[in-house]
From TrEMBL:
Family (UniProt): Belongs to the adenylate kinase family.
Catalytic activity from the UniProt record: AMP + ATP = 2 ADP
Name of the protein in question: Adenylate kinase
UniProt-listed InterPro entries: Adenyl_kin_sub, Adenylat/UMP-CMP_kin, Adenylat_kinase_CS, P-loop_NTPase
Amino acid sequence: MILIFLGPPGAGKGTQAQHIASTRGIPQLSTGDMLRGAVAAETPIGLKAKAVMDRGDLVSDDIVAGIVAERIEEPDCEPGFLLDGFPRTLPQAEMLDELLERAGRKLEIVLELQVDEEALVDRLNSRIAETKAAGGEVRADDNEETFRKRLEVYREQTAPLIPYYEGKGLLKAVDGMATIQEVSAQIDKELDSLS
Ligand code: AP5
């Protein structure tokens, strides 16, 4: 099973991706996590990506698609994988189509998590509070100003993927305003209907 999670920052992509990864036994490929790992390790990609991520912009399509292309070749992706945060632009979506076609693989479903914008800001603030309470480090791009910028980038560059995947008959909208458990149940139902 190959699937994509689409949705604005804070919509719950990471939360639901973990649920699917554990219940379906496929890896969660989060480009945000991969890039943060590269930043922390100060790799050449990480050094390039840091400033872009800190201001809420998108890292270049070529860099991100390169990371994904390498990752999906790994053996744990053989039974399938879940893309969390990729693709984020139309060129990335086209690059993914090419990668999958070359590998003779097929994207099965794109789940779009729909959440109201003000609820997203509340969730961001909760995540910051929870991270601080647990003694963790708050993400450099998790502050209200950068978050608003990430929302704007989502509207301009990522939202066009909704009609793109709708046109391919792959898009399923999920009500992301429900509780975490209810959202998981909606997703489970969509995935069960595929098999
Ligand atoms: P990335 O790491 O992908 O961040 P994001 O898309 O902005 O998403 P978030 O991780 O903030 O939110 P989420 O939807 O995963 O929500 P979560 O489950 O955490 O990207 C970061 C940056 O990396 C980008 O800005 C860009 O610079 C770069 N990047 C990444 N991919 C790229 C790409 N493909 N191309 C170019 N650049 C790229 O939930 C949020 C909070 O809400 C949590 O506290 C959670 O507990 C809570 N919550 C979740 N669900 C619910 C619910 N149903 N009800 C109440 N609370 C909930």
